[in-house]
């Protein structure tokens, strides 16, 4: 059955951003549009500032034997705020709050200058009427937090660097023309969603993160790890982002198909994670870009952007000679399973295993590929797309012939969409035998070159065996499967009603 097209999602909300390199976690605001995922970080900005020189003064400080200069600073250009004297200790300069006039000075630079300036230090300062908001609230969180796993405010005092006591700061005195500061969400990262990908797994492994995922843009930029409070919230965001990625993919496919021949149309393309067949060999999982286009199934290391990129596939297979197989799933009832897949309903974590959302492209010994997707809807799309691509390819070629041998004779074995199976001697047109698809009752093979096909004679109702030997047996068997599947599909009114020319993207 077919579904109405999904509409793109517009969404915003708060999440945690975890950086594996620094082991720090920050609150971030996520904004999702049709084409972009934007990550905003909380920062302090100056909303108004007077540059009147009235409040500027020059102060001479003498370094004490104990206690240093007797002040602490915080702020800095790297945080988009000025360097500020945040604490002045007893018996030192005075009990006021000053802004140090160090244009574009970073926090580390300010500390270094004050520590190495000698015994007598002359600085230009400006008096502040009130304590700026960034001295009161820690940066990196919209409010108080007891989560000690989060990073400390980068605007904490430098007191231990510049003085030797912990005296409390004095209350501010009133003044005028003070700059105003407030905390705002500022754009930090904007990720285009066209040909982007998402991942819930630790890089290169089958280890699933809990309530977390990453988003990777086409250019390699990423979100780092987005963490959510609940599995439901994580899944909702993951589905929303995936929906928008799929919408953009659908639009991109339509644009490409508009300029391609009917034999070279794209049915579906997108990211999937390939799992190595032999993990003991040290190979790790890697993301691949897959494309069903024309007569081929293509595997790319990176998405094809220009026309010339389509010839750079790592691997290309003939659609009719490969077999698509969904791995073990978490439900036995096929109808109920399909309904859940198409509705996008996810199974619970305790029901999930590594193979839950995997499919294989079976080609032959040592050539098959296993891929993992992120959502049940992705798995459903790939399954329906593969069925559709194979169907249209069989409709296009109508027949396929392979050379074979039987009892030392060279034969030609033909699979024809209209007439079924035909075997002739060499290139001769005279058929040695012919059977319809419905007459094939069974088969067996040695896994190498030989196959036994069992047909039911329409007149005698007796089973007749034909033993053939092929150089490429797996390709032949998969081709037989493709033609029979296409024949069955052509007799299914529901399937045929859902079909449209390859130039139109499927309704999923």
Keywords:
single chain, about 500 residues, alpha+beta, PH-domain like, about 35% strand, Syntrophin, PH-like_dom_sf, structural molecule activity, cytoplasm, Syntrophin, gamma 2
User: Strand tally, please?
Assistant: 26
Q: Average pLDDT across residues?
A: 80
SS-based structural class?
alpha+beta
Number of domains: 4
Strand content: 25-35%
Rg: 34 Å
CATH architecture of the largest domain: Roll
Would you write up a description of this structure?
The chain has 508 residues and is of the alpha+beta class. It starts with 10 loop residues before the first strand and ends in an 11-residue tail after the last helix. The N terminus is likely disordered.
Summarize it:
With 508 residues, the protein is α+β, with helices and mostly antiparallel strands. It has helices spanning 107-115, 133-136, 159-162, 231-258, 334-343, 376-397, 473-490, 493-497, and strands at residues 11-19, 24-32, 36-48, 56-62, 71-76, 81-88, 98-100, 120-127, 180-192, 197-199, 212-216, 225-227, 266-275, 286-293, 296-300, 315-318, 323-326, 358-362, 369-372, 399-406, 409-416, 420-425, 431-435, 440-445, 450-456, 463-469. Residues 1-5, 139-175 and 330-354 have low confidence and may be disordered.
Draw up the topology in text.
Elements: E1 11-19, E2 24-32, E3 36-48, E4 56-62, E5 71-76, E6 81-88, E7 98-100, H1 107-115, E8 120-127, H2 133-136, H3 159-162, E9 180-192, E10 197-199, E11 212-216, E12 225-227, H4 231-258, E13 266-275, E14 286-293, E15 296-300, E16 315-318, E17 323-326, H5 334-343, E18 358-362, E19 369-372, H6 376-397, E20 399-406, E21 409-416, E22 420-425, E23 431-435, E24 440-445, E25 450-456, E26 463-469, H7 473-490, H8 493-497
Antiparallel strand pairs: 1-2, 1-12, 2-3, 3-9, 4-8, 5-6, 6-7, 7-8, 10-11, 11-12, 13-14, 13-19, 14-15, 15-16, 17-18, 18-19, 20-21, 21-22, 22-23, 24-25, 25-26
Helix pairs in contact: 5-6, 6-7
Domain Syntrophin C-terminal PH: 399-491
GO cellular component, one term: dystrophin-associated glycoprotein complex
Keywords: Cytoplasm
């Amino acid at each position: 059955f077919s579904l109405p097209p999904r509409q793109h999602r517009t969404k915003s909300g708060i999440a945690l951003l975890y950086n594996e390199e620094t082991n720090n976690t920050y609150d971030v605001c996520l904004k999702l549009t049709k084409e972009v995922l934007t990550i905003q970080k909380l920062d302090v900005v100056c909303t108004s500032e007077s540059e009147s020189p009235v409040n500027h003064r020059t102060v001479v400080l003498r370094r004490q034997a104990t206690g240093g200069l007797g002040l602490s600073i915080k702020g800095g250009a790297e945080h988009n705020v000025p360097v500020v004297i945040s604490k002045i200790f007893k018996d030192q300069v005075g009990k006021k709050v000053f802004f140090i006039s160090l244009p574009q000075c970073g926090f580390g630079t300010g500390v270094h200058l004050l520590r190495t300036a000698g015994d007598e230090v002359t600085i230009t300062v400006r008096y502040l009427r009130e304590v700026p908001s960034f001295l009161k609230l820690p940066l990196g969180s919209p409010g108080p937090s007891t989560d000690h796993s989060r990073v400390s405010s980068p605007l904490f005092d430098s007191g231990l660097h510049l003085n030797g006591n912990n005296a409390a700061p004095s209350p501010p005195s009133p003044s005028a023309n003070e700059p105003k500061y407030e905390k705002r969400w500022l754009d930090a990262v904007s990720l285009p969603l066209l040909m982007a990908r998402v991942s819930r797994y630790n890089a290169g492994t089958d280890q699933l993160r809990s309530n977390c995922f990453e988003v990777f843009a086409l250019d390699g930029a990423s979100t780092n790890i987005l963490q959510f409070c609940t599995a439901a919230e994580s899944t909702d965001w993951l589905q929303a982002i995936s929906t928008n990625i799929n919408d953009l993919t659908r639009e991109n496919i339509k644009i490409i198909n508009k300029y391609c021949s009917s034999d070279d149309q794209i049915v579906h393309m997108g990211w999937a994670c390939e799992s190595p067949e032999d993990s003991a060999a040290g190979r790790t999982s890697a993301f691949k870009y897959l494309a069903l286009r024309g007569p081929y199934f293509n595997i790319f290391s990176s998405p094809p952007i220009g026309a010339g990129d389509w010839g750079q596939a790592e691997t290309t297979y003939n659609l009719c000679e490969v077999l698509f197989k969904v791995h073990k799933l978490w439900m036995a009832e096929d109808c109920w399973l399909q309904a859940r897949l198409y509705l996008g309903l996810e199974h619970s974590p305790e029901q999930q295993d590594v193979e839950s959302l995997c499919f294989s492209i079976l080609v032959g010994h040592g050539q098959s590929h296993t891929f993992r997707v992120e959502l049940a809807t992705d798995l459903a799309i790939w399954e329906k797309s593969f069925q559709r691509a194979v169907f249209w390819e069989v409709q296009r070629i109508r027949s396929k012939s392979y050379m074979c041998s039987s009892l030392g004779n060279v034969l030609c074995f033909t699979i024809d969409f209209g007439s079924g199976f035909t075997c002739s001697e060499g290139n001769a047109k005279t058929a040695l035998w012919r059977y319809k698809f419905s007459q094939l009752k069974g088969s067996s093979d040695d896994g190498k070159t030989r196959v036994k096909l069992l047909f039911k004679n329409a007149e005698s109702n007796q089973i007749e065996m034909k033993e053939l030997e092929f150089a490429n047996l797996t390709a032949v068997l998969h081709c037989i499967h493709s033609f029979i599947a296409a024949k069955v599909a052509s007799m299914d009114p529901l399937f045929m009603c859902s079909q449209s020319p390859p130039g139109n993207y499927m309704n999923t």
